[in-house]
Structures are given as C-alpha cells and as structure tokens.
Amino acid sequence: MEYTKSSNPTKLNPPLNTVHLDHRVPIYRVHMIIYTIAILAAIYHRSTSILASSTLVEAGVLWSLLVSDIILAFMWACVQAFRWRPVHRQEFLERLPDRVTWPSLDVFVCTADPHKEPPVGVVSTALSALAFDYPAEKLSVYVSDDGGADVTLFAFMEGAKFSRHWLPFCRQNGIKDRSPEAFFSSGRCCGGDEDKLKMMYESMKERVENALEKGSVSAVLASSDTQEDKHIFQQWKDFSRNNHPSVIQVLLESSKDKDVAGHVMPNLIYVSREKRPKSPHHFKAGALNALVRVSSVLTNAPIILTIDCDMYSTDPTSPQRALCYFLDPAISSDLAYVQFPQRFQGLHKNDIYGGEIKRLFTINSHGLDGICGPNYVGSNTFHARRALFGSSLQSVNANGQDKIGSKMVLEKATEVANCDHEAGTKWGDTTGFRYGSLVEDYYTGYRLHCEGWKSVFCNPPESAFLGEAPKSLNDVLSQCKRWTVGLYEVGISKYSTITFGVRKASLAAGLCYSHYAFWGFWSISVAAYAVLPQLALINNKPLFPQPSDPWFYVYVYLFLAAYIQDMADFIAYKGTFRCWWSDQRMWLIRGLTAAPFGTMQFVFKQLNISTQGFNVTSKVMDDEQSKRYDQGLFDFGVDSPFFVTLSIAAILSLCAFTVGIFRNGMVAEMFLVAFGVANCWPIYGAIFLRRDSGKMPDRVSARAFVISGLILAIGCVAFNV
Ligand SMILES: O=c1ccn([C@@H]2O[C@H](COP(=O)(O)OP(=O)(O)O[C@H]3O[C@H](CO)[C@@H](O)[C@H](O)[C@H]3O)[C@@H](O)[C@H]2O)c(=O)[nH]1
Ligand SMILES: [Mn+2]
C-alpha cells in the first residue's frame, strides 16, 4: 500500500471512507516502460521492411500492418492511463450521522418499451428502490415511461398497492434482494407471510401480463377498480407512443400513504413526458432531463439515483454507501456522482458473450477513479443534483414546498415535462444530461469531468445492483454497435476527448476517455490480422521475421505480454480463465462486427444517409434461446450481416491453417492463424455441424463462402504478381 488517505482531513471524526492506491502500480509502470520500448522497436522494424520491400503489393500489405500496429499502440497507450493509478475505496456506513440529517433522495427508473422491457420487471426494479433502507419521507421513486404505455402505468398502480405489503415484509424479514421478481424467482424461503405475498405478486403479474397481451388496460380493469382509476386511462385515447401529451400520476404520497404496518410510504410517481413527432426527444438523456425538472418541482432532492429498468437493487443500504461520499466534506464540494458497477444476473458460467464487460464496468473504473473519477455508465449512479442543474434550480422550484399531489404543483410539473420547455435553453448542452451522443451516459460524465467535477467509484464486495445483460449474440453486437456510433459522436466532435478532453480534464483522463471514444478503430487492426497473415501463409509470403531472427522475439513479447497482462488483470478481478477466454474472443468478434458496422453507421449518419436511434436492448428471450445460452451454445440463428463478416474470418483462417500444416517456416503467421482458428471454434460448429435453430443460417454461410473465395482469389493474384 503506497499510501492510505482518509478523505476527511480534519481527523476530528473517523472518516466515512478511505482510499488506497492499487499495490500493482509499480509493476504496471515498469511494464509500461519495457513494453513501450518494444512497441517502438516493432514500428521501426516494420518501417525498415517497408523500405526494403520489393513489390507494391508487399509494401501495401506491410503498410496495412503498420497502420494496424499503430492503432494497437495508440489503444495500448490509452489503456496505460487506466493503469497509472487505480485506487480502491472503502465506506464506513456505521459512522454516518443520524438519519434525520440525511439529504433526501430521488430515484429515476427509465423504461422505454413494454414489449422489450416487461412492465412487471420495471415495477420490481422500482420496488427494490422504494424498499431502500432510507427514511421513507425523504425517498421518492420516479418512473419515466418513454414508451408512453398505459400498461406500464397500470403495472405501477398495481405495484403501488402491492408495495404497501412488500415494504414491511422486507423490513421484518431482513431481505436484501428487494425486487419481488428476483426474490420470488430465487426460490429462497424466509417464512412469515411469504406465501400470501407470493400469491399477491403472482396475481398482480397475471393482470399486467394479461393487459399487455390484450394490448389494452381498459379490457382488464375489473369492477373492483375505482372510477378514478378508470378515468386515468381515458387519457390514452388518441394516444400514440410518439405523439402524446405529458402524463404525471402520483401513485404514492409520503405525506398521506401508509404501509400495512402503519409506516410512512415513500413517494412513487409515474411520468411520461410529452412526445411530438416534430420535436427531437433525445432518447434516454431527454427522458432523464424531463425527470430532473419534474422532480425539482415535486421533491427536489439534492441526490438523484439513476437506474435502468432492469437494474434492481440487491442491497438496501447502497444509498447509505453513497452518503459516505456525499457527506464527506473533503470530497463533496466537487463531487458530481458516485458510480456503482453494473453487474448482471444469470450469466453463463463461462460468460460466452463476455456480458460482464469487466474492463468497462470494473477494472477501468478503478483506473479512472484515481484520476478524475469513473465515467458515468448510465445506471447505478448517485448524482449531486447541483452538478446537473446548477443555478437554474430556483426558477423551476418555486412550488417546491407545496404538497406534491396538489393541482397547482402537478400543473407546473406537467409544464416542465412538455416538449417545448427546452427550446432555447441550455438543457442537454451545459445543463442536465448531455445531448448529441447515443452514449449519453459516457458523454455526460465526460463533459462533467471536463468542467472540473469529480466522481467516485464505489465497488462494495457484494453487488449492490444486478441487471440483465443481452443474451443473444445479435443483441450483444447490436448494443455494441450503438455504443460505437455514440462514442464516435464524442470522439469526432468539437468536444473530442483527444483535443478538448486532454486539455480540460487532464492528459490521463483524456487518454482514458479516448480509449472508448475511438473504440471503433479496433476494427481496422482486427480485420487486418484476420485476413493478411492468412493470405500470406497461403501464398507463402512471410510478413514476420523467422525464429532465427532476433526481431521475431520482439513480436512474440508484444503478443504474449499484452495477453498475459490482460489475463492477469481479469483473473485478479475475480475472473476465471474460461471467462477471460470468452472475453478476449468477444473482443475479436466485436472488432469484426460491431466496430466496423458501427464505424460505417457513424459515417452514414454524418453524411445524413441514415439515422441510428437508441435501439432499446430487449430484456426478454424465447425459451429456445435461453436454453442454448444456458448450454453455452452460440446463437447465430438470425440473418445478420455481423455473422457474414465473422464467418468470412473463420473460413479464411481455416483455409490458411490447412495449408499451413504443410508448410515449413512462417511460424508467426501460423501461430496467428491457429489462434484465429481456436477463437473461431464456435463458428465452425455453427456452419458445419449444428442443426438447431441457432446454427449459422444457410444464406449467411453461402454469402460468406462466396466472399471468402473472392478474397482468396484476389490474394493469390496480388501476392503472386
Ligand atoms: O429512448 C429511450 C431509450 C432508452 N431508454 C432507457 O434507457 C435504459 C437503457 O437502455 P438499454 O436498451 O438497456 O441500453 P443498454 O445499451 O443496455 O444500456 C447501457 O448503455 C446506455 C447507453 O449508453 C446507457 O444509457 C445505459 O444506462 C447502459 O446500461 C433503459 O432503461 C431504457 O428504458 C429510455 O428511457 N428512452
Ligand atoms: Mn440495458
């Protein structure tokens, strides 16, 4: 431990949190120096071989490898910033001051599509937050329904009734997983009123699912539902998802609602902001900004927690953990947010699609935490309201003292949820969540860091939130493609991480953010290494030095050291070898799919040829898909262009490997090709052996064979002229 620092300099009270530097930092730094020398040597070697090349094609191929290597070197340099001074923190909840002094907390839950995000799941997430171990009169949960779906509101009305039983049940039985869906599906028993509650929950679920299936709430409203309830749904006449007025419903009000044990309930508020086809709505960032304003009218808590609709709480004390930073005078003055990692439930034991994304959500977050603080990842984040909504606070908050259900307050809240409210304001630019990127979270955190705000990474030993990772390969890659586009929107803009970021945040922060911003560039290096060594091997034209040449060992070192360090880090952060293998394989797969297609999409978007919106990731899977996932079988079953490029890479490597067996020499090329074949293993099975509906579609294989044939033919001609 190089140093241990309590964030509380006064030392009068024991600190609420401590921070210490990662003990691997000296090793990281030594390795950094040696590896840098090796990179420079390899670039030098490549350049001299270009000068010595005898044909145009050879020079072209070597040039391509040089460019690929420079991109790899740039990415490597950016990653070093994460390894510069990673830190680890600890919180001491028992040292928090008395509850009456705690600030109030507004929780935002976002949902956008009742078919991709089942409303009962959204309700469960909201209930897990409603059941936080936090003073109820200081807690408000807001749900933003961007799907504008009556069934979501219906689910929340049912959820509000259920919560009056659920909250005391959780308290009395000391339950940690306070999402009813997670609790009841876990099969855990705790006795008490469990059976009764389970029945209530199931019946609520049935009603909501019924309404979803029928496509209308009115059809399932029973005679027992009040006239008032029925009246609410009248608003959905002439209502469509993208064209409707604001709807705000206060479903639970702390000042008057009690649970069945007589305790005060937190506030629960449903918000569906106005949408009009002609007004840009800025996806999730727009939804969150509407909530920032609505909540500032209704409750105006100084701390805001944002969670995605699938990210339920698994630790009711996590707001208290966040308070250990917000109430620490040594860091609170410029603290914009406290980020908890995103973790996922139900992943395959070998995490075949690398769904954990350990580097983004955990390893790199510790790295950035030592510099300016982790980047904002959209969910599990406690924000300081003033960082989002500085000085304009007063103007909207004029009615902050009124009862939240009063007509006047609701009118004001509705007004600020309307489309035209943002016209001519700084919302999305310097206020609130920032517009202009499909990764609004990354962009918002980045801009805050550029403005001098700090953040903190809070990674308790036991997970605080759990969500759904996409579990079909096409969904995983589509999500990643959307991110790639959004990241370019930051990287290639006037706020570019590499120009603006390095100046405004810091060199190290700018490099870390650049590592993400130019993520799509991987496609160039990965594609070059998926094609060129293969063609070279087939045509007997070496690209790398032979083992008899000392330069050979520079390349061996570069490859092995990078992979071994990556693996060691992965395993040090509670990973297994098999999960690491999946993770590195997914890196290659993404490099051949999401990255190049995302890059193209970004270019088209810039040229106004196409638009890419925020395509919500589905949180439901059909049974067969789930079964395949649980068996660890890759799911290719859809006709997707992603799978064509993947199959081409697999076929080229297989051809080269077959030829390579009969060749002498070309050790480096053969090694790269064999590594490719090992990584493509699931693809061969899907093309040649499998018969289930997750196999590679015949059309995809056919196209891949034709294109691979063309590439091989072009390679033969080019290498042999
Ligand atoms: O127009 C929209 C689109 C999405 N959402 C909500 O945004 C959340 C995230 O959407 P999802 O489809 O799950 O996106 P992911 O790619 O899985 O999410 C990651 O990436 C997003 C974009 O960077 C972040 O917003 C998320 O927090 C982060 O978990 C969900 O709750 C959605 O309901 C909206 O509210 N409005
Ligand atoms: Mn998600």
From TrEMBL:
Entry annotated with the keyword Plastid: no
Membrane spanning residue stretches: 27-44, 56-79, 513-532, 552-573, 585-604, 642-662, 669-688, 700-719
Lineage: Eukaryota, Viridiplantae, Streptophyta, Embryophyta, Tracheophyta
GO MF annotation terms: cellulose synthase (UDP-forming) activity
GO CC annotation: endomembrane system; membrane
Localization of this protein: Endomembrane system
Residues bound to Mn(2+): 284, 308
PANTHER family xrefs: X-BOX TRANSCRIPTION FACTOR-RELATED
Predominant cellular place of this UniProt entry's protein: membrane
Alphabetical GO biological process terms: cell wall organization; cellulose biosynthetic process; plant-type cell wall organization or biogenesis
Binding site for UDP-alpha-D-glucose: 116-117, 146
Record keywords: Cell wall biogenesis/degradation, Glycosyltransferase, Membrane, Transferase, Transmembrane, Transmembrane helix
Pfam family of the protein (one): Cellulose_synt
Active-site residues, Swiss-Prot/TrEMBL: 146, 441
The protein, known as: Cellulose synthase-like protein G3
Membrane topology type: Multi-pass membrane protein
Source species: Rhynchospora tenuis
